Amino acid sequence: MTIGEQLKKTRTLLGLTQTQMCSGIVTESFYSRVERGLSEINATDLFKILNEHHVSLYDFFEVFEDVRPLQQVIEHEAITAFNNHNLSALKRLDKNNKVTNHKLKLVIRLMISVLTNSVDKIPVDLQVEMKHNILQIGNWNEAALWELAISMSLYDFDEMKLLIDSAFSSFHQVNITDEYLLAISNVAINYLAICYKNKDLQECTKAIQFINKLPLNSTITMSKIIAKYYQALIDNDKERAEGIIKLLKQSGYSNYVKNFPQLSK
User: HTH cro/C1-type domain: from which residue to which, for each copy (predicted)?
Assistant: First the structure.
């Protein structure tokens, strides 16, 4: 079984034409060559096609016997679930006995703790292990940024500031891709939430300004909206804050807003 054959099988099961399957992601002619095994599709475009049609990455790759790609697929599913605040999906992955990578297991459990606001309930020895194993800084690529976004709550505030300054300052030194923008914007949003909780308005403003300066891109629209929400909180603009929450709920993002801080009534 090849990637192209599995794509064709998936498309057939979905009842889609080749044009419908790849629309807006790759050209129909290129996609046709992928299905016929004449061209190779990169992982980013493959994930986009599968996500567009709500196809589980785990189910798609389960037919392949190579364990290494399977772990990469599970990692991608975990990141997608974390980004979408999909707690149930993360809990399913946590119980998946095919997650054999120890570091990935720690990451998934930390993701769950972050989304449930229960990082402080993680045993101290496990926090130390997570902190040691998860974030290993070499350069601020997408993987390192996601690890920072996930493990941020394990650091004290001063340590966190140093990490954030380093990550933010590297922005103009890397190749900007959609995946990089999504990762760095998640770092900024998570840092913004922590700063607001700690009532450090100066650092809140720094995070908001960083997000506002990110290029316009549909990939990070949510981050820009959330930054506007926190700005409304800082400005004590209850009407604007409630309007943003209403918009997000109407757009199907209830998972995001249920843990948002709110202005007191």
Answer: 7-60
